[in-house]
Write a structure and sequence with these properties.
The structure holds two protein chains of two kinds. Chain A is α/β, with parallel strands linked by helices. Chain A folds into two domains: 167 residues, 3-Layer(aba) Sandwich (Rossmann fold), CATH 3.40.50; 65 residues, no CATH class. Chain A is 35% helix and 26% strand. The longest helix of chain A has 18 residues. Chain B is globular, with a radius of gyration of 19 Å. The relative contact order of chain B is 0.15. Classes of the chains: A alpha/beta, B alpha/beta. The interface between A and B is large, with 36 and 38 residues.
């Protein structure tokens, strides 16, 4: 069963003459329980797609179906609760003067949920944080703990889809490993569907089943995890990104794929 | 491989301490290393003291910090006893620093050309005309196609990759013998990163100078540098040739390597680093 269906999705910013089409006609389908990756350079439109799926950006055209239900520009609360965002920077995305408990309470209030204390305790346990963390402020937490809070905040509304916008790129490798493991566990336990935006193909290959490689607002290729691992991707741009995640390739040693985009 | 007997910088048991309200915090503890005409990487997590080490070499630490070392020798100069005036003559001219984000490191109200020329005008008393021609040549050297046009641009008018190339040209115009690059490519996209690194690589080889490359990216350091220093909680836990990083002995280095998702060696679950309090001793 497909959880997300996007057909000829295009997203733009601005109005009239100044309108800028950031995402140009992409179509994709994500199955329930699948993790779909979006990879590309800054400005290619990957976060914009997440914004449109989350209901943050309403200036889109095409058709969008989430959990078997066609979505319009205006959504109901329950439609909005179905997908939740996790942002890149856990230092900037959590209110600095609210305790963790209050941060987690806010979505429950907005969506009028019951059993609030119980839900907060459950979600803290789910992301592996001690219960007394609800009385703490973000500055008393490390980067990895904050990212767990951000994930908890997304999970508290019991969504079906998590939209992950570079969830580990602000973290150290050892902390990144913890968060990636947590995301894997949660996906299995809660039957979640993920869309993961990243610039690191190694992270994407670790978590995703399929990945769309984006360049200037369109998909250049949709590759499977197998293709990435076996190095059988087709598009030269995907290859450049793969080399990038392996580190530096010396010009003196390198002979092929010399054509870099300007 | 560079000739390591030709040492540019020697640091022996350096420590950097910050007095705070709740006692003294030691950011760097008993760090020793030397840099020859090679690319040396310093790797570590946030807070491991890698940037503090880089800054302490140039004496750019905050005024309240206390730097101690038994020896800090840069070519013919003892960095421990050098006066502030001597340090000013060294900074920018003989030791140069490249920082992470060109957006914040370039002066926003000066054109790119003026900023690059400033280095040679100040350090070498070059005439404005000479400075301009050297700047244009330097911009061309870092593969900027239209140096005349870029010379008159302001930093906000250039892209991240071009900004970083401008930083590199600014650092290299005075022909320093040591470059400290603090996360020079972390703010850049992979394709741009590749271009910037290959320029840096060529220049280091071409001019036969030393490079200290501070980064948190293991794959990058492994593939770019000759030698790697691994730092943990202000200490050097291991120094190893970049090519032998896979054979690293220290459990911390091993833990970092295993925590890394890899395209070539996929794992179902990533290993989580177990921090051993014993690493903090010695």
């Amino acid at each position: 069963m497909s959880m997300i269906k996007a057909h000829h999705l295009a997203v733009s910013y601005g109005h009239g003459e100044a309108a800028l089409k950031v995402v140009k006609d992409v179509s994709f389908e994500v199955q329930k329980g699948e993790t779909f990756g979006l990879v590309g350079e800054s400005g290619c439109g990957k976060s914009t797609i997440l914004g449109a799926l989350a209901g943050r950006n309403k200036q889109w055209t095409g058709t969008l179906e989430i959990d078997g239900e066609e979505i319009g520009q205006k959504r109901t609360r329950s439609q909005l609760a179905k997908q939740q965002l996790v942002f890149q920077d856990p230092f900037g995305s959590i209110h600095p003067r609210h305790t963790i408990g209050r941060t987690l309470l806010e979505p429950l209030e907005i969506h009028g949920k019951d059993r609030r204390q119980e839900r907060i305790e459950k979600v803290l346990t789910d992301v592996g944080l001690p219960l007394n963390f609800r009385y703490r402020y973000p500055h008393q937490l490390s980067g990895g703990q904050r990212q767990r809070v951000a994930i908890a905040r997304a999970l508290i509304l019991e969504p079906k889809i998590l939209l992950l916008d570079e969830p580990t790129s602000a973290l150290d490798v050892s902390i990144q490993a913890e968060i990636l493991n947590l995301l894997k566990d949660l996906r299995e336990r809660e039957q979640l569907t993920y869309i993961l935006v990243s610039h690191d193909l190694a992270v994407v290959a670790h978590l995703c089943d399929r990945v769309a490689i984006m360049q200037s607002g369109g998909f250049v290729e949709v590759a499977t995890r197998q293709q990435l691992l076996e190095n059988t991707v087709e598009h030269p741009y995907t290859r450049i990104l793969m080399d990038g995640s392996r580190g530096y390739v010396s010009e003196r040693r390198k002979s092929d794929s010399a054509a870099l985009p300007a | 491989m560079a000739n390591t007997s030709d040492t540019i910088l020697t640091v022996e048991s350096m420590s950097v301490e910050f007095p705070t309200l709740s006692g003294v915090t030691t950011a760097v503890r008993d760090v020793s290393f030397s840099v020859g005409r090679e690319k040396i990487g310093i790797i570590g997590e946030s807070g491991s003291g890698k940037s503090t080490t880089g800054r302490a070499i140039m004496r750019l630490q905050p005024p309240q910090a206390i730097v101690e070392a038994s020896r800090m020798q840069f070519e013919d100069i003892d960095l421990l006893t050098a006066t502030e005036e001597e340090m000013r003559a060294i900074r920018g001219r003989r030791i140069a620093m490249i920082l992470q984000d060109p957006k914040y490191s370039l002066n926003p109200v000066m054109t790119v050309g003026e900023q690059i020329s400033e280095t040679v005008i100040l350090h070498e008393r070059a005439t404005p005309k000479e400075a301009r021609s050297r700047t244009l040549a330097m911009l061309e050297r870092v593969n900027i196609r239209d140096p005349e046009r870029v010379f008159d641009l302001y930093p906000h008018e250039v892209s991240g990759g071009m900004g970083q190339r401008i930083m590199i040209s600014m650092m290299l115009i005075a022909q320093p013998s040591l470059i400290i690059a603090d996360e020079p490519t972390s703010a850049l996209d992979v394709t741009v990163r590749q271009q910037v690194l290959s320029i840096l690589d060529d220049l280091v080889v071409e001019r036969n100078i030393g490079l200290i490359f501070i980064s948190h990216d293991l794959n990058l350091v492994r593939s770019f540098c000759d030698r790697v220093i691994i730092m943990y909680a202000g200490r050097v836990v291991e120094t190893i040739a970049a090519a032998d990083l896979d054979q690293a002995q220290h459990p911390y280095t091993r833990g970092l390597l295993n925590a890394l998702p890899s395209l070539d060696n996929p794992k179902d679950r990533l290993e989580v680093l177990r921090r051993d309090p014993a690493w903090l001793e010695n």
